[in-house]
């Protein structure tokens, strides 16, 4: 499958190096991307990442926006100037830029979250909180068991 799925928690060292999950590297390689494009996520205090296909999708989305609109300016002024390419070394580690580490509030570990066409990198406690919110919101009321 050429999609980013699954959740992985990896150690982040003092130099900002973290292992890009092997599953994600495989997706990037199948997409013929030699690096991961990293940028601020618009919908969370997290890092968004993907390959060349994801960047193409973003560019197409931007091209379809009203150049005088707020969403266009959000993408052009906030996201695109902050895109950084991170190639992985022989052990599969990438170096996260300091500005993105700070943005996501990362310290000693990072949670990689598959989002189908891209992935996000979250601070573990923030991701756990997000998951708890989602579980609460989508939990179905249980039918009471009646013994008549």
TrEMBL record:
<feature type="domain" description="SpoVT-AbrB">
    <location>
        <begin position="83"/>
        <end position="126"/>
    </location>
</feature>
<keyword id="KW-0805">Transcription regulation</keyword>
<feature type="domain" description="SpoVT-AbrB">
    <location>
        <begin position="7"/>
        <end position="53"/>
    </location>
</feature>
<dbReference type="InterPro" id="IPR037914">
    <property type="entry name" value="SpoVT-AbrB_sf"/>
</dbReference>
<dbReference type="InterPro" id="IPR038619">
    <property type="entry name" value="MraZ_sf"/>
</dbReference>
<dbReference type="InterPro" id="IPR003444">
    <property type="entry name" value="MraZ"/>
</dbReference>
<dbReference type="Pfam" id="PF02381">
    <property type="entry name" value="MraZ"/>
</dbReference>
<dbReference type="InterPro" id="IPR007159">
    <property type="entry name" value="SpoVT-AbrB_dom"/>
</dbReference>
<protein>
    <recommendedName>
        <fullName>Transcriptional regulator MraZ</fullName>
    </recommendedName>
</protein>
<dbReference type="InterPro" id="IPR035642">
    <property type="entry name" value="MraZ_N"/>
</dbReference>
<keyword id="KW-0804">Transcription</keyword>
<keyword id="KW-0238">DNA-binding</keyword>
<comment type="similarity">
    <text>Belongs to the MraZ family.</text>
</comment>
<dbReference type="InterPro" id="IPR035644">
    <property type="entry name" value="MraZ_C"/>
</dbReference>
<dbReference type="InterPro" id="IPR020603">
    <property type="entry name" value="MraZ_dom"/>
</dbReference>
<comment type="subunit">
    <text>Forms oligomers.</text>
</comment>
<keyword id="KW-0963">Cytoplasm</keyword>
<keyword id="KW-0677">Repeat</keyword>
